[in-house]
Amino acid sequence: MNISVRNTARLLWAGLRALLVLTVVCGVLYPLAVTGVAQGLFPHRANGSEITSGGKVVGSELIGQSYLLPKKNPSDASEQPRPDLRWFQPRPSRGLGTNTVNTQYELLLSGATNRSGDNKELIDWVTAAKAAVIKDDSTPGHPVTPDAVPPDAVTSSGSGLDPDISPEYARLQINRVAERNHLPADRVRALVDAHTTGRTLGFIGEPRVNVLRLNIALKSLTEGSG
Description:
Blueprint: H1 2-41, H2 43-46, E1 50-53, E2 56-60, E3 97-98, E4 108-109, H3 120-137, E5 164-165, H4 167-172, H5 174-180, H6 185-194, E6 196-197, E7 208-210, H7 211-225
Helix pairs in contact: 5-6
């Protein structure tokens, strides 16, 4: 009986020591080491890839933002948001849902639509988005044709939070942005070209334009021209 109790106590003490050691190593030392390396080598990315403007953090280069007009009636939940056409618009965010657990905050959830290509609801979304792009981005003397609308202008990304658009979609918006901000189209086109990033290492991914960075530069341009 005494031997059995001693063996049990020995095993419990060994398990407790292992738990303490693993807690210190995996729960304290390893996170501190990883955090230290990240802060030392990649501080910008380790801190959320924040973008600042006017001395304030205005977002992250990894998460897309919407550029919408204020609601005419803020208390009307059925009123659909309208894009503020002075700004370059991001990809649609149909994959986003709203937080239904904690109703105190209206949080956006990352996710795709998970609808097949022949799903009627998805087809209706894409058709409506394409019609809106053609209407919104057509300007006098520069009509947008259906075949000129790139896929990312009418479809959301897998996460629904893509911060980038294709150079084709950015160029499609140049005339509308220039007209709305009373700027020469050439100056806006130069802005898009300056904010177009090529493929990573020359072969990974696709050329892209970060919408937040582009709109920050557009804001500076409009303030400077005013």
